[in-house]
């Protein structure tokens, strides 16, 4: 299994390349680029929120709590007075750290359902929908944000599988195949729930035409950059 530093460095590099390419499409601003980069990097750390290692769990859950606080604060800023905003953020953070994370730790096992492609897709879809519906960002930006979040997540799963190969003897460790999977046979109920949540999120995506358009712009930009 790759360690925290390896996951962070790799996710930061891969999502940085994606975010910079996205900037060259002309669809986003420099600040958008930084947000997309940060989301991809965070996506590369998120799978280990199911970790039994307390340091990894603390870092990942603290980062997630910070993102929730910033997102919620930003969303409420123009809707409620400052005192209400601060009270709501505090309540949500207490609930998140005191109830959600312990519950999540209880129902998940490391390298279980949360280390899967369906979890990566769910993360990407949720980010796209939050950005588009709650923060009223453009469909292009929302898809770029979700795409890079998903890329960061999947990069983590790839790294875990690569580190499950013993390069000296070319033998596979027991953990091989437990990260890059679509379905966890040891926990079919949670696997079904993840796929059902993915289906719900797909329903709310901002349409496939903007996704098709942004992907073709990304490919065109990459082709021009390499040519
Ligand atoms: Zn992992």
Question: How are the strands ordered across the major sheet?
Answer: 1-2
Question: What's the total number of strands?
Answer: 2
Bound small molecules, by name, code or SMILES, are: zinc ion
Oligomeric composition of the shown chains: single chain
Task: Note the total helix count.
Answer: 8
List SSEs in N-to-C order.
HHHHHHEEHH
Q: What is the structural class?
A: mainly alpha
Overall number of structural domains = 2
Mean pLDDT: 89
Biggest sheet layout: 2 strands, antiparallel
Low-pLDDT segments:
none
The Rg value, from CA coordinates, equals 18 Å
Bulk shape = globular
Helix amount, in percent? over 70%
- Binned strand content: under 5%
Quote the distance from N terminus to C terminus.
37 Å
What does this structure look like?
Keywords: Hydrolase, Membrane, Transmembrane, Transmembrane helix. It holds the Pfam family YdjM. The chain crosses the membrane at residues 55-76, 82-105, 117-135, 141-159, 180-204. InterPro entries: YdjM-like. With 227 residues, this protein is mostly helical. The chain folds into two domains: 10-47 and 110-226, no CATH class; 52-108. The chain has eight helices and two strands. Strands 1-2 form a two-stranded antiparallel ribbon. Helix 6 packs across helix 8 (208-226). It is globular, with a radius of gyration of 18 Å. Zinc ion binds at residues 47-48, 115, 156, 160.
């Amino acid at each position: 299994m790759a360690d925290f530093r390896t996951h962070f460095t790799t996710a930061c590099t891969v999502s940085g390349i994606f975010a910079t390419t996205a900037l060259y499409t002309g669809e986003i601003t420099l600040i958008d680029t930084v947000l997309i980069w940060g989301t991809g990097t965070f996506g590369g750390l998120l799978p280990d929120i199911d970790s039994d290692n307390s340091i990894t769990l603390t870092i990942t859950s603290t980062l997630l709590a910070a993102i929730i606080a910033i997102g919620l604060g930003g969303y409420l800023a123009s809707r409620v007075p400052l005192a209400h905003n601060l009270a709501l953020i505090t309540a949500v953070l207490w609930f998140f750290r005191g109830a959600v994370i312990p519950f999540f730790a209880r129902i998940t096992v490391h390298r279980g359902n949360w280390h899967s492609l369906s979890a990566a897709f769910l993360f990407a879809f949720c980010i796209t929908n939050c950005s588009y519906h709650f923060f009223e960002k453009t469909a292009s930006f929302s898809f770029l944000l979700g795409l890079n979040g998903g890329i960061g997540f999947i990069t983590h799963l790839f790294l875990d599988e690569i580190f499950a190969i013993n390069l000296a003897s070319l033998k596979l460790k027991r953990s091989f195949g437990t990260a890059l999977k679509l379905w966890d046979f040891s926990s079919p109920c949670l696997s079904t729930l993840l796929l059902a949540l993915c289906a719900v999120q797909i329903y709310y995506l901002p349409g496939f035409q903007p996704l098709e358009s942004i992907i073709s712009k990304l490919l065109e930009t990459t082709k021009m950059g390499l040519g």
